[in-house]
Design goal:
With about 240 residues, the chain is of the alpha/beta class. The chain folds into 2 domains: about 110 residues, Rossmann fold, CATH 3.40.50; about 110 residues, 3-Layer(aba) Sandwich (Rossmann fold). It is built from 10 helices and 7 strands. The strands form 2 sheets. A 4-stranded parallel beta sheet has the order 5-4-6-7, with helices on both faces. Strand 1, helix 1 and strand 2 form a beta-alpha-beta unit. Helix 1 crosses helix 10, helix 2 packs antiparallel against helix 3 and helix 5 crosses helix 10. The two termini are about 20 Å apart.
Length: about 240
């Protein structure tokens, strides 16, 4: 199996992705089995500083620093369980020592497979203001509905002031449910959980719309690539 390198940004999202790969590996491959995994992260504060200044080249340098460290210890390919900093991937890939899986491409492929056509997007203000998802979705003939300005500001606050610290509040769940319901009224058939921490409070069990969990989908795609098989099926 190939060695997966995780370029982490926030602790909660990276930890959830790591755990998901390990859990899915055991489910698909047998008790306690998963690929070799390595994780590296710069300080989240360094990423936030670059994002606040709109410095995507700076974000790219942080990602590349992690990429080179992971390549040096044997990672065969790289993933980043953070949707927002995928904005910098075009600056990263030409200089990267290893290939990457793109989280939005993985989500778009799943949406096509499940027959969704119009998708709501939830994430940080930096993400929903960017072209990360609209471009990947449009390439598959899919529509993207972004939050309103007020919705994106409140969702951003929930993510950056609560979720990245492991704080989960009922009021924040209710806020997300309200946003997703509005997206449903706007004709969305599903919503992208486009922040790797949002699945910590939202899922199909409490969402008015079916969810596309970017964290879980990236983890499963990485697992598939690591074992070099597209036709994995759960044991039992």
């Amino acid at each position: 199996m190939q060695h997966i390198g995780i370029v982490a940004c926030s602790a909660e999202g990276a930890a959830l992705c790591y755990r998901t790969i390990c859990a899915e590996g055991a489910r698909l491959l047998g008790p306690h089995v998963h690929p070799e995994l390595s994780l590296h992260s710069a300080s989240l504060a360094d990423y936030v500083d670059c994002l606040e200044r709109g410095d995507l080249q700076g974000v790219a340098e942080l990602m590349l620093s992690s990429a080179h460290k992971l390549a040096a210890i044997g990672a065969d390919f790289l993933i980043c369980p953070d949707n927002t900093i995928h904005q910098a991937l075009p600056y990263v890939e030409p200089r990267s020592p290893r290939p990457w899986l793109h989280i939005a491409e993985v989500v778009a492929a799943e949406a096509v497979e499940r027959g969704y056509k119009r998708l709501g997007l939830a994430g940080t203000r930096w993400l929903v203001d960017s072209a990360v998802y609209p471009e990947k979705l449009a390439a598959h003939g899919l529509d993207c509905v972004r939050p309103t300005a007020a919705e994106r500001d409140e969702t951003h606050r929930i993510i950056m002031d609560e979720l990245v610290y492991g704080v989960f509040k009922p009021d924040s769940v209710a806020c997300c449910q309200k946003v997703f319901s509005r997206m449903q009224d706007d004709g969305c058939s599903a919503v992208i959980l486009g922040c790797t921490e949002i699945p910590l409070i939202m899922s199909d069990s409490n969402s008015p719309l079916p969810t596309l969990d970017s964290t879980a989908l990236l983890a499963r795609a990485a697992l598939k690539r690591a074992v070099r098989g597209d036709g994995l099926r759960a044991k039992g």
